Amino acid sequence: MSENTDICRIQRGDQEFILVGTAHISKESRDLVAQAIEEEHPDTVCVELDDGRLKSLEDPDRWKKTDLKKIIREHQLGTLIANLVLGSYQKRMGLSTGVRPGAELYGAVLAARSASIPVVLADRDIKVTLKRTWSCTPWFRKFSLIASLFSSLFDKTEVSEEELKRIREQDSLSSMMQEFGKTFPEVKSVLIDERDQYLASRIRNAPGKKILAVVGAGHVAGIKKIIEENLPLPAEEKLCEIKPSSPIFKILGWTITAAIIASIIGVGIHSGLDKAGEVTLNWFLYTGGGAMLGAIIAGAHPFAILTALVAAPFTGLTPLIGVGFFVALVQAYMRPPRVSEFETVTEDIWKVSRWWKNRVTRIILCFLLPGFPAIIGKIIALVGIYKAF
């Protein structure tokens, strides 16, 4: 066991830390974790899970209880979409090896419980990680991040156990992380570096003389360095803070809103009330019509389509909320997803042909699609206001 390259041992004083690096879709990793816990008899087992992800592994049917209306009302649909895309990608990779994503982590929890060994959930809440990733990414790189996220839906790569074993080798991982860091340095900082710190803090503070930690292979080097060199770490609360959005964009948004309203008033003063009424009507028609077109393309319920038509002229004037919020919410009320659709959503999201068949993904389409043509309609309406002077 001690010669296994996926296991790293660290001795600090009278404490021994055993880091087991895994791939989350690997059968070999799952078996290695069970063997390590059985042979090492640690005082504590730490796993790269948070409470929410552990509950998902314990209860795979949690999806059936998802309240989409509540998620939309609480403005969490974007987080859900990111979770779905990432989960779908990992699940598809898991199908290549026949292993459920996270099986080795859940296996570690079960093995520890059966041996009456305390378990420490060492990872940061996934929702916090996603929110910090988004808030720390500059606005001009957010588009590339979204494109990269959704491009994973069309990645048909399959991986074997042999490929996973090669990827887990340290040199390969270091190279991959360096390349990722060049493209998205802020994302790497949140997804890898900060989580290395959070995981290392939990592992280092775990009770007992022998601590066994089961973590993704990509985190082993960072955690090892922190524990070996006893590096100072930020408080966990600091690593969980959500950076508030810059007020500049809200100020800019409300400034544009004020400018649009002032321009319509100016048209009335300069060209008469009839002309002001005409450009106002065009504003409603172009923005509302654009959003309605997007809702139709999304396959929205007729009431949701009507909502797009009515809401877009008003949401187009505010930086606080988009028309997709209202369209998705009405869609969720009018056509709530069936239980079976929650069960298959991580599979249906891979295939474009299924996006309109599954009510969950259709609600996501209702959230995303009305906004783009509404923006085009807004630009056309603004050009009309400008020409009216």
From TrEMBL:
The protein's name in its UniProt record: Pheromone shutdown-related protein TraB
PANTHER family in the cross-refs: PHEROMONE SHUTDOWN PROTEIN, TRAB DOMAIN-CONTAINING PROTEIN
Question: Keyword Transmembrane helix on this protein?
Answer: yes
Highest rank taxon of the organism: Bacteria
Entry's transmembrane regions: 251-271, 283-304, 310-330, 363-386
Q: Which UniProt keywords apply?
A: Membrane, Transmembrane, Transmembrane helix
Its lineage opens with: Bacteria, Pseudomonadati, Fibrobacterota, Fibrobacteria, Fibrobacterales
